């Protein structure tokens, strides 16, 4: 076996698909790319997200306490990377990258029509925000875009490369301990 630096452990334990996070304050929406997030629990549905002060969306999220997590498909790969390479304090990223939006139901941040799914969220815990830039969000509404033909998601490997979802392994009949979950 070859040893690699411990600082690269995230490349092996990548938490899930790369996502887009929308926020809005004073009528000005923004979108950012995020790779560090995790499910914390099933019910209520809690999501942990790392968004730091280096991100333009950080202060808006702190001020408003709400956002949308949008899950893009593989066909948005280049757009997702490009959104992450620029700052919303200098431009309207929705216009620049042609992302189509629609209003959310419970939060001021917009949904992204181009994505596979959108999750409306509200902050429920900020005790880990100052030391670790970790926001705990509760999902309040989930929207699925069933019309999307491209259903594969991308998982960032931390070096500019991505793993892409492929097939599905169905082991539901073996998951006896978790049958009570939806």
Overview of the structural elements:
The protein has 182 residues and is α+β, with helices and mostly antiparallel strands. It has one domain: Roll (Pnp Oxidase, Chain A). Helix content is 14%, strand content 33%. The strands form 3 sheets. A 7-stranded antiparallel sheet has the order 2-1-5-8-9-4-3. The protein has a two-stranded antiparallel ribbon with strand order 6-7. It has a two-stranded antiparallel sheet with strand order 10-11. Strand 6 and strand 7 form a beta hairpin. The radius of gyration is 17 Å and the shape is globular.
What order do the helices and strands come in, and which of them pair?
Elements: E1 19-25, E2 28-34, E3 37-41, E4 46-50, H1 57-64, E5 66-71, H2 77-84, H3 93-97, E6 101-102, E7 111-112, E8 117-125, H4 129-132, E9 134-144, E10 154-156, E11 162-164
Antiparallel strand pairs: 1-2, 1-5, 3-4, 4-9, 5-8, 6-7, 8-9, 10-11
In summary, what is this structure?
It comes from Ensifer canadensis. The chain is α+β, with helices and mostly antiparallel strands and 182 residues long. The chain has 4 helices and 11 strands, in the order E-E-E-E-H-E-H-H-E-E-E-H-E-E-E.
